[in-house]
């Protein structure tokens, strides 16, 4: 099953600007619910409306005769998103795409009903849970892919500096797995409290590891800048030691301290095969939000086509070969996490410079 489509015949009308609370697309036998923050204020609502346009394109390309897609407006309210998700789960939806609200996704992941349909959650920084899959690129995946790309060039001994918190163990596990493919390993993992800027962790590293080949900094919600200053004082990055960052660094403006670091991340503007058609249809450029939404609707239609309207099993969704979408290759794991291929960059003069078109930590 691929999550990439070819255009259907006929033009698609440009999306209306007004937002309807519930919209239905397609007439197919598989009942799917998509939860988007269509009327949320600010950038959340803007992203939600882009995702709706992406869903319309995917339905026109692939889904109209396979799916009946009901799009519900969460208004960007986590409580409302949770209620709409539970309604979809309990009223016969075969798959739920969304929500984008992190607290709602986390709540759904705690529900334990064995007959619950799969949920393809679109929330940022969501770790996933059994049957509740994290669609977006995670820091664990970015760190693992970046580390693997450096290990592929011969580096063997790695240090992971990771912001203490609920994601730290998952990041460590994923990075260790990614390195093992290339015969490399984590010499030590040092969780740090962002409050102290990571200075203690950097000092501890000096007494625990001699001459690491690379240092990975997974800074979570906090700015990596204070920790990078402490590393720079120790000569990292340098001739013999690489510095590896993550996608989370890029949530804030480029800082001079990022210079020389390697980062594996999705290109925010690269939406592969759908870019031109999306722009022609909706008269604005696609972005990574569009790509995620398109891929999930296309994936759902692809499975319905290949296996039938009741084919959304764990075996199908977690198949090890994964799926090819407009964001590249991706696959879902039993713990709800996802793994992706992505470009590999180096920060040079305050900009991302492409080093390799594709890397992966799996």
Task: Walk me through this protein's architecture.
This protein is an alpha/beta fold and 362 residues long. The protein folds into 2 domains: 22-137 and 268-326, Response regulator (Rossmann fold, 3-Layer(aba) Sandwich), CATH 3.40.50; 139-265 and 342-359, Response regulator (Rossmann fold, 3-Layer(aba) Sandwich), CATH 3.40.50.2300. Helices cover 34% and strands 22% of the residues. It contains 10 helices and 16 strands. The chain has helices at residues 42-63, 78-90, 102-110, 139-152, 168-180, 199-208, 225-233, 275-282, 288-307, 314-317, and strands spanning 22-25, 30-36, 67-73, 95-97, 119-121, 132-134, 157-163, 185-192, 214-218, 242-244, 262-264, 323-325, 328-332, 338-340, 342-348, 351-359. It has a 6-stranded mixed beta sheet, sandwiched between helices. Strands 8-7-9-10 form a 4-stranded parallel beta sheet, with helices on both faces. The chain has a 3-stranded antiparallel beta sheet with strand order 11-15-16. Strand 13 and strand 14 (338-340) form a beta hairpin. Helix 1 runs parallel beside helix 9, helix 2 crosses helix 3 and helix 4 runs parallel beside helix 5. The longest helix has 22 residues, at 42-63. The protein is elongated and about 65 Å long. The two termini are 20 Å apart. The model is unreliable at 4-16 (pLDDT under 50).
């Amino acid at each position: 099953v691929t999550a990439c489509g070819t255009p259907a015949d006929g033009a698609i009308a440009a999306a209306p600007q007004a937002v309807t609370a519930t919209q239905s697309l397609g007439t197919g036998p598989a009942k799917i619910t998509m939860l988007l923050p269509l009327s949320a204020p600010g950038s959340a609502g803007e992203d939600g409306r882009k995702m709706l346009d992406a869903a319309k394109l995917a339905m026109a390309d692939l889904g109209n005769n396979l799916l009946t897609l009901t799009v519900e407006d969460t208004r960007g309210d986590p409580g409302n998103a949770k209620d709409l998700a539970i309604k979809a789960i309990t009223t016969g939806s075969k798959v739920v795409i969304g929500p984008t609200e992190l607290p709602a996704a986390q709540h759904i992941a705690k529900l334990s009903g064995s007959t619950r349909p799969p949920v393809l959650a679109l929330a940022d920084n969501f770790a996933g849970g059994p049957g509740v899959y994290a669609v977006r690129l995670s820091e664990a995946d970015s760190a693992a892919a970046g580390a693997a790309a450096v290990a592929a060039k011969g580096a063997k001994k790695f240090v992971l500096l990771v912001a203490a918190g609920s994601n730290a163990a998952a990041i460590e596990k994923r990075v260790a797995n990614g390195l093992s493919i290339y015969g490399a390993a984590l010499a030590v993992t040092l969780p740090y409290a962002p409050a102290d800027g990571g200075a203690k962790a950097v000092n501890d590293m000096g007494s625990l590891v001699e001459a690491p080949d690379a240092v990975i900094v997974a800074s979570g919600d906090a700015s990596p800048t204070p920790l990078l200053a402490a590393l720079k004082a120790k000569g990292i990055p340098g001739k013999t030691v690489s510095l590896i960052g993550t996608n989370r660094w890029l949530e804030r403006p480029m800082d001079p301290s990022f210079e020389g670091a390697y980062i594996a991340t999705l290109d925010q503007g690269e939406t592969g095969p759908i870019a031109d058609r999306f722009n022609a249809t909706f008269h604005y450029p696609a972005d990574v939000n569009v790509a995620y939404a398109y891929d999930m609707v296309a994936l759902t239609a692809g499975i319905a086509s290949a296996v039938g309207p009741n084919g959304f099993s764990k075996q199908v969704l977690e198949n090890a070969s994964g799926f090819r979408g407009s964001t590249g290759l991706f696959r879902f794991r039993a713990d709800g996490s996802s793994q992706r291929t992505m470009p590999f960059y180096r920060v040079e003069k305050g900009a991302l410079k492409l080093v390799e078109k594709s890397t992966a930590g799996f």
